[in-house]
Amino acid sequence: MTAPPAPRRDLAAEPEVARLCDAVKSAAAEGRVLLPRGGATRDGALGPFSGEPLALAAYAGIVRHTPTELVVTARAGTPLLELVETLAAAGQRLPFEPPLPAREATLGGAVALGTSGPARAYRAALRDALLGVTLIDGTGTVCRFGGEVMKNVAGFDVSRLMAGSYGELGAMLEISLRLEPLPEWSQTQALACTLPEALARMPALAARAGALSGLAWLDGWLLARFEGSAVEVELDAKAAGGETLLPEDAATRWARLREGPLSAKGDGALWCLSMPNDAPALELPDANWALDWGGARRWVRSTADPGAVAAMLAPHGGHGLRLSPSVVRTPQPAALRALEQRVRQAMDPSGVFAHGATPGEGP
Amino acid sequence: MDRSALAKALARAVPGLEVIAEPEALRPFESDGLTALRQLPLIAVLPTAVDQVQAVLRYCHREGIPVVARGAGTGLSGGALPHEAGVLLVLSKLSRILEINPTRQTARLQPGVRNLAISEAAAPYGLFYAPDPSSQIACSIGGNVAENAGGVHCLKYGLTVHNLLAVTIVAVEGELLTLGGPTLDAPGLDLLALFTGSEGLLGVVVEVTVRLRPIPAQQEVLLAAFDSIRASGDAVAAVIAAGIIPAGMELMDKLAVQAAEDFVHAGYPRDAAAVLLCELDGEGPVLEATRARVMAVLREAGAVSITVSDSEAMRLKLWSGRKNAFPAVGRLAPDYYCMDGTIPRRYLGEVLDAIAQRSEAAGLPVANVFHAGDGNLHPLILYDANAPDGVARAEALGNEILALCVAYGGSVTGEHGVGVEKLDAMCGQFEAPELTRFKALKAAFDPQGLLNPGKAVPTLARCAELGGMHVHHGQLPHPELPRL
Ligand SMILES: Cc1cc2nc3c(=O)[nH]c(=O)nc-3n(C[C@H](O)[C@H](O)[C@H](O)COP(=O)(O)OP(=O)(O)OC[C@H]3O[C@@H](n4cnc5c(N)ncnc54)[C@H](O)[C@@H]3O)c2cc1C
Ligand SMILES: Cc1cc2nc3c(=O)[nH]c(=O)nc-3n(C[C@H](O)[C@H](O)[C@H](O)COP(=O)(O)OP(=O)(O)OC[C@H]3O[C@@H](n4cnc5c(N)ncnc54)[C@H](O)[C@@H]3O)c2cc1C
Description:
- The structure holds two protein chains of two kinds.
- By secondary structure, chain A is an alpha+beta fold.
- In chain A, 28% of the residues lie in helices and 26% in strands.
- In chain A, the strands form five sheets. A six-stranded mixed beta sheet of chain A has the order 15-16-14-17-18-19, with helices on one face.
- In chain A, strand 6 and strand 7 form a beta hairpin.
- The longest helix of chain A has 16 residues, at 15-30.
- The N and C termini of chain A lie far apart (62 Å).
- Chain B is built from 17 helices and 18 strands.
- In chain B, the strands form four sheets. A seven-stranded antiparallel beta sheet of chain B has the order 15-12-14-13-17-18-16, sandwiched between helices. Chain B has a five-stranded antiparallel beta sheet with strand order 5-6-10-8-9.
- Chain B has four domains: 3-90, Uridine Diphospho-n-acetylenolpyruvylglucosamine Reductase, domain 2; 97-214, Uridine Diphospho-n-acetylenolpyruvylglucosamine Reductase, domain 3 (2-Layer Sandwich), CATH 3.30.465; 218-328, Alpha-Beta Plaits (2-Layer Sandwich), CATH 3.30.70; 330-471, 2-Layer Sandwich (Alpha-Beta Plaits).
- By secondary structure, chain B is of the alpha+beta class.
- The chains are: A alpha+beta, B alpha+beta.
- At the A-B interface, strand 7, helix 6, strand 9, helix 8 and helix 11 of A face strand 9, helix 7, strand 11, helix 8 and helix 10 of B.
- Bound molecules: flavin-adenine dinucleotide (2 copies).
- One flavin-adenine dinucleotide (FAD) is lined by residues 35-43, 45-46, 56, 76, 80, 99, 101, 104-106, 108-110, 112-113, 115, 166-167, 171-172, 259-260, 323, 327, 357 of chain A.
């Protein structure tokens, strides 16, 4: 006999949640602005914010992990690292390979920033794995969107909308995610080459169906990672050629790609650019590059100003996020910006969460 | 405005636009795949260019006329059911494949492109479009986006939402907007995710960029027979629990198996209580290794026999029973009603048993043929619409089944959408706070409520009226709302 289904819990009845709801309600009534806050690891980078912190880090813990279902539900304040470790102990992982910047970084923060790692191009983005979100909306009311099932088209997909919402659509309480089994085997092949050579070679490597889970270029090496069953990985790695990296060496390089491969310190500005993988090698002054996502994500440190970066990306339909010295993004079409603003108001009518954490548009 | 006045006005406002206003000519458009519901639109228009779509919306927006978008009309929830005082905007003539880009592994499509046509056009490049609804010969990519359509291969390769890069829409006032873009992630809010599955309520899709995937080297299908439906459901959960994600896992119960056998002679064991079709893909040695693991799990789970396809012809034959299951079941009774609930996979066996009990109590046979790997049930309720209470009894059983899915932590629709059909069922799954946000999101795109009005999201008043029927954990939903 399977256990009977878990009854739907009434989160609003939990004292901690009731307190958070009250905080949102009174802020809304008094016209104050709140900033949902997890581990605050991005406080420095994303500032300055208006608004008082609404602390969610204490609302932590795994609510339900059903390994046989490949699904986990955790509170938003759960440290990401703790989640990753718990899942690994059960032979599972998050399919989107999130950055793990510090012990304090939370699941809620990761979802709010919507950041995915190298696996994004060939496996899943964070938003792809989101199945459900329970949140406090701008009226201080608990709402539950999505759930723990793989397929669900009842109502609008607010759960996925929360990925990359920067805390401006509501405060997330619980998050349900699809998981994947840890691969039996992981192997990285490395080929020494220049950046343009890497860009030219990558499409052929991605043209083969199989175990590819990462395709990058870092420090003069093209890196192709394969994950899956031992048989599958061995076949694909052999077809890719190059030399096989030692597991620890490979893990270090992929961790760098996951968390930001170029140092935030140094001259010029650090950018994370998104563009089609077939965009050519771009020319920027004093540039230092790294490629991820088969060339569709390009990290660069350069002295170019934001206007020059935006102008260079435009013909390719690309966009960019400058991470240092301060966070700005390349401009978006005005019509889209207006629609986004109306969507924010729909979730948060009185603007309690309108704290301006979403990166501003440069220059 | 009456029919002919509107037809004249639109023809004048939008030069070259094909307008249909004769009731007889409108007949083919009066329903989608849910044929129990029929309604003639005031007029139908069939644009052949994006600027015509814009002009139609600009005109209707100015005049306050409702607009219902329609793709191929294969939807099963009445999503494309016309509005009696509105324009039916038929997108089937916008059917060009604009670009296949093998380096990017993407395709750019007009909304009326048929789902199967995408994979056919991509095949010469060694690529395919993974989401493959059973209706793929007919259904359009625009309709797939609007419903977040799924299919057999979505277990491994994801639903429509996972395979989209960009959607260009015409907003209600006629403006062109692109959600997403040619990059893997787009800046700002993920409006592409919000739009996917929005059933024509937020905008009209006029262009879609999808991701393509490399065609697997080889495919094979395993057919496992079980002597109880319970065991077959538990077997599906056991495969997932073993950490194996096959390319597809579909279940058929005895009624569906026998109907399919009679119809296409696919070679299914007629005496089995249930048949599981499990597709595997990859290169030879990979297939061999996975096959061994899957067979061990299935045997352990009680499979009484397992057949493996040994040729492409045999693979297609084994699938033909599944692919033709709906029409096959359709021959068993004057009418059938297709449900679309989802549940966590570990409850499959239990819920299938519970459905069988309810079917017996209601005196209406139910055939099950569904996307088991995703926990997406398709109970087909067999009934006779001409019998007294025929429709009402089928609907009552359907609603019982959907309530069961919700009670098990699932959803009232996995891929067919709410349309008009599941408005009441929505009241059982959501409460006032969520419904209020849905309404507000709709208004963010369409403040006057002109796009596909009355679909997908029930009003609070409707749910309050139903309140008595959906008692949730002993509590009336929406206690804050007045009872009628
Ligand atoms: C500009 C930028 C730079 C980054 N740089 C790096 C880097 O160099 N290295 C690296 O490894 N990772 C980096 N990341 C990723 C980031 O550190 C992780 O995603 C981390 O998980 C954030 O978690 P946190 O708990 O610290 O979030 P916080 O810093 O607390 O919050 C980040 C954002 O999420 C919102 N938020 C937090 N919790 C919730 C909640 N429960 N509900 C709603 N909103 C919430 C906040 O309002 C805020 O907008 C970067 C991300 C961005 C956007
Ligand atoms: C035999 C059969 C099998 C099926 N199998 C499956 C299956 O396996 N998986 C599955 O997911 N579905 C299945 N369906 C349901 C149906 O095929 C899908 O929902 C499909 O996505 C609908 O596409 P369509 O072009 O026919 O859309 P329509 O039925 O014309 O419209 C569906 C909805 O989308 C809206 N819409 C259509 N085009 C646009 C547009 N361009 N812009 C905005 N809104 C638009 C309509 O307003 C309506 O709300 C099946 C149907 C049948 C008849």
